[in-house]
Write a structure and sequence with these properties.
single chain, mainly alpha, 3 helices, elongated, binds zinc ion
């Protein structure tokens, strides 16, 4: 499934190898590191310099969607106070920041890549 490969950060063309070399480490303030090309099919992840500028907008959208989802769950479903819900949003945002970075880049790559047609 293509959406699963996207969420796992696999190559958009062959869906076999990882886009990212490392997941990054929030505690060490490391951002995830990318591979330049796919180790399986040689797909180039960064099509051109500055290609990932657009991924920032994807990241905003992903983060906003998560904020809204977390807020709705904590305030309206779990019945937590506004302040507690607000803290939940911040905590979740911090926990997910590394994943969001990878996810937004994956989404961006997938938007412009076509899967290789299997012979
Ligand atoms: Zn590949």
């Amino acid at each position: 499934m293509r959406i699963i490969s996207l969420l796992k950060g696999k190559c958009p063309q062959c869906e076999k190898k990882d886009i990212f070399k490392s997941n990054g480490n929030l505690l060490k303030l490391q951002i995830p590191e990318m591979n330049n090309t796919c180790k399986n099919c040689n797909f180039k992840f960064e099509k051109e310099p500055g290609f990932f500028f657009g991924a920032m907008f994807v990241s905003y959208a992903v983060t906003a969607a998560e904020f809204i989802a977390v807020f709705i769950v904590s305030h309206f479903i779990l019945g937590l106070s506004l302040l507690t819900s607000f803290f939940m949003v911040i905590i979740i945002a911090i926990i997910l920041s590394g994943y969001n970075f990878r996810l937004s880049r994956s989404i961006w790559i997938y938007l412009f890549a076509k899967p290789k047609v299997k012979a």
